[in-house]
Write a structure and sequence with these properties.
The protein is α/β, with parallel strands linked by helices and about 425 residues long. It contains 12 helices and 15 strands. It is globular, with a radius of gyration of 21 Å.
Length: about 425
């Protein structure tokens, strides 16, 4: 029987660590789903794309970003950026709380071509206003309303977010986290916990359960995973042993090469690679998930492990085993990359350190539910997203001159710390 395909991808190195699959194969797609995987597939295809010499994986999953553009200070319009860089599923890390979640569903999730999911912030206002900590006032922190929102929109909501740095919680120590865990217990979903200076990491980890996620694991602001001597804290290793996950969450202030090097040298690699993409870092130093993954690749993480940390591992972390792998019958979310080698590629961390690497993961095309997207076709949309991000960044940073309104008497209170 002759097979027919809407799309046939041929000749790529197909890599799916979750299935121990690493071979030169073809992938056939019909009706938005993978219909065949094999060597030299035969049949009729409406569209055939030769991927010889390129890497083909499941669509990448970014479990930490901020997407509520136009309604929060952090939000970036990331739909085109995702589709230009191999990301088929992106998860907002708590931009909406229960009070503004309906707007997020209507204005961000519904029109997106990328699959958009979200952690719901335990603070009802979410991350609306960056200059003030969202959990300084505990009246905003409501586990019951948070849980009810997750249950009502369970197809989109994957868990709870809480930021546990001193700036975000003020004098409330780990009480916001305790309430986030309460919401997690109600819904049987994970809590993603932002760690930063101001709240001791042992106190944070003591509240976390198996399946909960530490994000910003390579941050260097303080109260991180390393001791003053550069060793991984025993409490962090114990947390991992009992099932707590560790996520990169690069961000604008939360990924340093020296911290990552020290952790990797002591056999403490992240479980998941994510960007923490937002308005303050979309034009550097984060840029995209492949750019972030390339940094880990040049720090010594194998390509196979990098792919796992961007596909099946994040899928498991958010309770979506239907994503992140290549199986016949699964949704046709795929990503093709050129793996450039032998060059001199510059990468920057949040402290300004420049790493000159010999490898770079460069997006070639993205397939989202059977539709092909190429970076060159999305340039205008990506540039507009960056323009809007810079505008919001100017508001947040009180850069009135950039906005065309330079008052001579404006005061300049401190802004929020980089995330």
């Amino acid at each position: 029987m002759t097979m027919s395909y809407d799309l046939l991808l041929t000749g790529a190195r197909v890599l799916d660590p979750s299935r121990e699959l690493d071979d030169r194969l073809d992938v056939g797609i019909h009706g938005g789903r993978i219909s065949a995987i094999g060597k030299e597939l035969e049949g009729c295809a409406e569209q055939e794309i030769d991927l010889a010499g390129r890497l083909l994986t499941a669509g990448w999953i970014d479990i930490h970003a901020h997407l509520y553009a136009g309604a929060t200070t952090w939000g970036v319009s990331a739909d085109a950026i995702c589709l230009a860089t191999g990301v088929t599923t992106i998860v907002d890390a708590g931009s909406p709380g229960w009070a503004n979640l309906p707007g997020f569903l209507e204005f961000i999730v519904a029109p997106a071509r990328t699959r958009v999911l979200t952690f719901v912030h335990v603070s009802g206002i979410g991350l609306t206003y960056g200059p003030l900590g969202e959990c300084e006032d505990m009246r905003y922190v409501d586990p019951e309303r948070t849980a009810a929102a997750i249950e009502r929109w369970r197809d989109i909501c994957v868990g709870i977010k809480v930021r546990q740095g001193g700036f975000q919680v003020g004098n409330n120590h780990v009480e916001p986290l305790r309430r986030a865990v309460e919401a997690g217990d109600y819904t049987n979903t994970p809590v993603m916990v932002h760690i930063a200076v101001g709240v001791p990491l042992p106190d944070v980890l003591a509240e976390m359960r198996a399946g909960d996620i530490v994000t910003h694991c390579y941050q260097g602001t303080g109260d991180g995973i390393l001791s003053d001597q550069g060793d991984v804290l025993p409490v962090a290793r114990k947390a991992r042993t009992r099932g707590v996950l560790f996520d990169v969450g690069h961000g604008g202030g939360s990924f340093r090469f020296d911290i990552a090097r020290a952790a990797l040298a002591r056999d403490f690699a992240a479980d998941v690679i994510s960007t923490d993409l937002h308005a303050n870092n979309v034009d550097g130093p984060v840029y995209s998930l492949p750019e972030t993954a390339s940094k880990l690749l040049n720090l010594g993480v194998s390509l196979e492990e990098v792919v796992r940390q961007c596909t099946s591992a994040p899928a498991a972390a958010i309770g979506r085993p239907d994503l992140g792998s290549l199986t016949v019958g699964s949704v046709a979310d795929l990503a093709a990359f050129d793996i450039r080698k032998g060059g001199s590629f510059e990468f920057r961390d949040v402290a300004g350190e420049v790493l000159v690497g010999k490898k770079r993961i460069e997006p070639y095309l993205t397939v989202r539910e059977g539709t092909v997207y190429r970076p060159a076709d999305l340039v205008d949309e990506c540039e507009e997203a960056v323009r809007r991000a810079r505008e919001m960044r100017a508001f947040t940073g009180r850069d009135f001159k950039f906005l065309g309104w330079p008052p001579s008497t404006a005061t300049s209170p401190a802004g929020p710390p980089s995330e």
